[in-house]
Design goal:
Blueprint: E1 13-19, H1 24-34, E2 42-47, H2 53-66, E3 69-73, H3 77-90, E4 93-96, H4 99-109, H5 125-139, H6 148-151, E5 154-158, H7 164-172, E6 178-182, E7 201-205, H8 208-221, H9 233-250, E8 253-256, H10 262-275
Helix pairs in contact: 2-3, 5-7, 7-10, 8-9
Length: 281
Amino acid sequence: MDGFRMDGSDRPCVIYAVSDSAGETGEAVVRAAVAQFQTARTEIRRRPFVKDRRQLAAIVTEAREERAIILYTLVLPHLREAMARYAERDGVKAIDALGPLMDALEERTGVRPEYKPGLNHQLDDDYFRRVEAVEFAVKHDDAKDPSGILKADIVLIGVSRTSKTPLSMYLAHRKFKVANVPLVPELKPPDELMRVPRWRIIGLTIGMQDLNQIRKERLKALGLPDTAPYAAPERIERELAYARDVMERLGCLVIDVSRRAVEETASLIMEHIRKAGGQWI
C-alpha cells in the first residue's frame, strides 16, 4: 500500500545525513534518491559538524530507535571508521557516500587526501560568484529592473507559472546571472529584450491543460476560487499565443516545461548556452 513501510508502520522512513562539515552534500544525495520514491513517506534529518565519536554514537542510537537509514559524508578517517563500527554494532543501515571514492582517488593518483572537512565550501571565488548570481536573480525577477536584461548571462521569458523564478534561482546556484521577463498580452515586452543576443534568450512554454491545472492550484493556495480569469482556458490560450508570437519574433530557443523538472530544464538551458558559444560558468 502506497506510503506504508514494510515493517507495518505508517511512520515515515527517516534518513540521517551526517557530516563533519555542513552536510549539504549528503543531504543533496539523499534528496536525489528520495525523489525517485514519490509515494514513500520520508523525513530527512541533517546532522552537520560532527566532531567526535560521542556525537556519532548518539546519532546511531537515535537512528536505531527510529529504524532509520544513515548516509554519511565524513572526511576524517577515524570518524568514518567509528561510524561504520557503531552502525554494524547496532544493526543500523549506514552508507558511506564519500570514503570509497576518496580511497579510490588516493589509490589511483598516489596523492594523500587533505582530510580537512568543508574544503568544497570554502569562501573562494566560486562562492562569491554564486552569491552574486543569486542576488542578481532576486533583483531582476519578473523584470523588476529591466536594465538587468542586458547584463544577464541568460534571459528567461514566458507566461506566468512557467517556472521562470525557480529556474532563475537554480541557474544562479550554477553561477549564471539570470533575468526573467513575464510575457503578458497587455504589456509590451521591455525594449532591452530586443537588444539581447538571441542565444542568451530562452523561451519557456507549457501545454494549455498543464498550465490550467497549475494556475488552479495556485489560486486555491491563495484562497481564491479556481474559476478566476487567471485560470480560464480562453485567457491561457490567449497568453500562450502571444508568448509564441514574441518568441518567434526574437528567434530564441523555446523549451516546453510541461511536466518537466526544473533540473532537467536547467540542464537543457546550460547545454544550449555552452553550444551557442556562451561562457561556461
